[in-house]
Amino acid sequence: MPKKLSLIAGFMAMFRRDLLQYIKSPSQLLNPLIFFIMITAAFPFAVNAEKAQLVQIGPGIIWVMAILSYLLTLHHLYLDDAEDGCLDYIILSPQPLPLLVLAKICAHWISSGLPLIIISPIIGIIYQMQVDTILIMIATLFFGTFALSLVGSIGASLTISINNSNILVSLLVLPIMMPVLIFGARTIELYQSGATTMSGLYFIGAYCMFALSFSPFASAAALRIGAD
Amino acid sequence: MSSQLTIENLTLFRGDKCLFKNTSFTITQGDLLLITGPNGSGKTTMLRSIAGLVEPETGIISWNHKSISVDRQTYHENISWISHKHGFKGGLSIIENLEFEAHLYNYSFNRIDDALERLSLSLNKNIPFKCLSAGQKRRASLARLILNKNVLWLLDEPTSNLDAHAQDIFKEILNEHIINKGLCVLATHHPEAFEDSTSIIELS
């Protein structure tokens, strides 16, 4: 009698394989992170700003750089699988494709979003942020970067059959990333000025949940078309 | 239940070029169908459209009398696919790649060692896939056929890069599959190497 298909085993296998892949080729993981650290850390030296100015511009710069470093990672999300033929085997597996896509998105977030979140307190200190402001920044980055992985997945899957699609992915997903950028940066600024911040966090959380509800399905459909 | 793959009036264009038009055939258990033709004639594309990876312009592909567009998952549960791209991650070893697929395709990974032994890959199982020779990569691909135990095999040039010994092993595995009432559609440049085929489609 054949073994029963385990969805959790399929999800975890895909998640583990992608993480192992990122660990074994650390340049994919480190390059965007180093880009993020270098630019955000260099900015205060370049503008020679006072403490008050740094506090004011810090959230915006951190969020813009987070998005730009994220864009560097997106085109690898499915392109490598398409080039080495793994994508065919993933599509032809009996596991539901949206589930495997979600596993890939989660592994992408662990390798691209989580390192940004872990390093962000140091960048926050450079921008003269208080401890409680850093905590708010971490909360916005936590939901925001996961939302970026989800919406970025749609752009990456739509462009797998196009050569040199890096710029195209950025052009496609940048407009739909704008709400995350605006609310992410603005929430931190509002907290620094003493205003209420929960509405901003609620918005990013809701955006993240909305993207979670459709991104795996939209990406899976785009991958099936792209494999054609 | 007897397994059957039916293709009806399959037509596919690439740009302006018609690769095949109104192609129809049925294969049942124990059948080996060869697709032959020169380079660029559409062998791989036909195989990909049979697998459901490429959407044809017209035509119906049915598995056990049910269109695959209606029940794609059941169809995929029965396919073993080998293409000219190996579908393994270069940075991972053969064993890591096959363990991943064991979860995806729901086969027991206790059998992986036996499959690698049969294909003379036991000594290379922990080496990163990208470090293997072209022939070893192809043999690693063929390990899927032993592990999956699926009834329908769709194989694109399965013997490319294989030495004479590995080709013999592959033919042995293929014969076992056909004797055990499996189905196989195989695209090849060398139809003469498969004397036991039940039918041939020649693309021009």
Care to describe what's here?
The complex is a heterodimer of chains A (228) and B (204). Helices cover 85% and strands 0% of the residues of chain A. Chain A has 228 residues and is mostly helical. Chain A has one domain (7-226). Chain A starts with 6 loop residues before the first helix and ends with a helix. Chain B is of the alpha/beta class and 204 residues long. Chain B has helices spanning 43-51, 72-77, 94-105, 112-118, 134-148, 164-179; strands spanning 4-14, 17-28, 32-36, 58-63, 66-67, 79-82, 152-156, 183-187, 199-202. In chain B, the strands form 2 sheets. Chain B has a 5-stranded parallel sheet, sandwiched between helices. A 4-stranded antiparallel sheet of chain B has the order 2-1-4-5, with helices on one face. In chain B, a hairpin with a 2-residue loop joins strand 4 (58-63) and strand 5. Chain B is globular and about 45 Å long. Chain B starts with a strand and ends with a strand. Classes of the chains: A mainly alpha (228), B alpha/beta (204). Chain A binds chain B through residues 2-6, 9-10, 12-14, 16-17, 20-21, 24-25, 84-86, 88-96, 100, 227-228, and chain B through 51-55, 73, 76-77, 79, 81, 83-92, 96, 99-108, 128.
